[in-house]
């Protein structure tokens, strides 16, 4: 169904009493996000590592780092670029729908390349194509939150969004186990799930349409501006970006070094590590889901964003201190429970807070949210780069995981402090 009304790019900012988003739209929107999470996180978590190990077992770690690192840079650049194009789209099908469908098509093509790849270079190309397609799709999805969901519902919807990533990882692992040894199905089944969910959303959404007269001129300067938001003119957005970057850096350290922490710090036998990682992932997922839903609803109820974001980042920092000082797997799980509750609250409410400080009232929401997503992507590159500094403190052998997770706590606590200067948000 297509809404035939012509709406200007500044429509979200101008609406004084916007109607509530329907339950049907929210369900389709969250389901699409969940499907995309399954399709994109399953390769990162499981299938790329398996396939690279099959192709080049002697250099698997280096091969995985190459594929993930290059594709992360591609995704970093793609998001803001496609977001700006979405904000300028004057198609009769709307501003976001073409990018939902087009991004899905490119992303699925990339997954098909991965499913048939027999060398590391082909895997690299396939994963980069996948990242480009899903970056365009994600830019449109992020903009739909601003276009379609009024502020008084964004906490609840952001809470549902926050749990998609955690559930996506668990669902992806389950699907991989379900398809047996077929490497092709390990890539294609998650992609099929995403395709079904996104197609339903694209068919159902009443998309905004942009009048060509309001589009303005596009030049090379506009291209480079798609990766930039002036932090002086838009200080609230800049502080929110910095807070997200610091918080996600703290989480990326835990996510990246959990396996080595269990083996080197706690002395867990290699054969037991997959089981313990699954247990900790399930604990983290369960607490993230519960906290996301509860805190998103409560944030809308109280009309408060800032306190939830600041408090949850601080609590996550304390959780990392628990992890840093844990001497047993049980104590480590306690840290994961606290961290999951904090992370769920943070992911639920932070996006709703960001929506309130978007430049120009959200007129260029897709582009600006693409810039904001850089704060999610860069920590995946930063964490492995800075970790050796903490690991080498006082040991020289690179095994000080206590210092590493105290470092993660410091990043998260600084992320909490970065929220404090934001004005105009309760």
TrEMBL record:
It is a multi-pass membrane protein. Residues 23-426 form the Major facilitator superfamily (MFS) profile domain. Coiled coil: none annotated. It holds the Pfam family MFS_1. SUPFAM superfamilies: MFS general substrate transporter (SSF103473). Its main location: membrane. One of its GO terms (molecular function) is transmembrane transporter activity. The chain crosses the membrane at residues 20-40, 60-78, 99-118, 124-145, 157-177, 183-205, 237-257, 277-298, 307-326, 332-358, 370-393, 399-419. GO terms for cellular component: plasma membrane. PROSITE patterns: MFS. InterPro entries: MFS, MFS_dom, MFS_trans_sf. Keywords: Membrane, Transmembrane, Transmembrane helix. It is found in: Cell membrane. This is MFS family permease. It comes from Kribbella solani.
């Amino acid at each position: 169904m297509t809404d035939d009304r012509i709406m200007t790019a500044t429509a979200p900012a101008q609406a004084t009493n916007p109607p509530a988003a329907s339950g049907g739209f929210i369900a389709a929107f969250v389901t699409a996000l969940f499907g995309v999470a399954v399709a994109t996180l399953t390769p990162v978590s499981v299938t790329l590592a398996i396939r690279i190990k099959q192709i080049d077992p002697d250099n698997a770690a280096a091969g995985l780092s190459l594929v993930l690192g290059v594709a992360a840079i591609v995704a970093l650049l793609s998001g803001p670029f496609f977001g700006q194009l979405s904000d300028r789209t004057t198609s009769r099908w709307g501003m976001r729908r073409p990018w939902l469908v087009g991004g899905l098509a490119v992303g699925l093509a990339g997954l098909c390349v991965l499913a048939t790849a027999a060398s590391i270079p082909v895997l690299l190309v396939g994963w980069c194509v996948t990242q480009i397609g899903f970056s365009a799709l994600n830019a449109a999805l992020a903009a739909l939150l601003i276009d379609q969901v009024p502020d008084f519902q964004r906490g609840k919807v952001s809470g549902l969004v926050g749990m998609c990533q955690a559930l996506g990882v668990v669902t992806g692992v389950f699907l991989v186990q379900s398809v047996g040894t077929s490497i092709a199905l390990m890539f294609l089944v998650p992609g099929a799930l995403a395709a079904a969910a996104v197609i339903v959303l694209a068919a159902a959404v009443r998309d905004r349409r942009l009048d060509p007269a309001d589009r303005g001129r596009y030049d090379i300067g506009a291209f480079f501006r798609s990766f930039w938001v002036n932090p002086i003119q838009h200080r609230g957005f800049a502080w929110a970006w910095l807070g997200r970057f610091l918080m996600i850096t703290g989480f990326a350290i835990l996510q990246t070094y959990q396996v080595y922490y269990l083996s080197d710090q706690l002395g867990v036998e290699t054969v037991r590590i997959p089981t313990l990682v699954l247990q900790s992932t399930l604990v983290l997922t369960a607490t993230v889901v519960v906290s996301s839903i509860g805190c998103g609803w409560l944030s809308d109820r109280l009309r408060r964003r800032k306190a939830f974001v600041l408090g949850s980042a601080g609590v996550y920092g304390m959780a990392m201190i628990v992890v840093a000082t844990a001497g047993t797997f049980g104590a480590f799980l306690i840290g994961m429970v606290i961290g999951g509750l904090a992370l769920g609250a943070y992911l639920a409410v932070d996006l709703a807070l960001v929506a309130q400080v978007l430049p120009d009232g959200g007129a260029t929401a897709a582009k600006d949210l693409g810039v904001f997503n850089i704060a999610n992507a860069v920590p995946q590159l930063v964490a492995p780069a800075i970790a050796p500094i903490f690991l080498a403190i006082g040991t020289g052998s690179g095994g000080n995981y206590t210092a590493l997770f105290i470092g993660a706590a410091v990043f998260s606590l600084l992320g909490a402090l970065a929220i404090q200067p934001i004005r105009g948000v309760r």
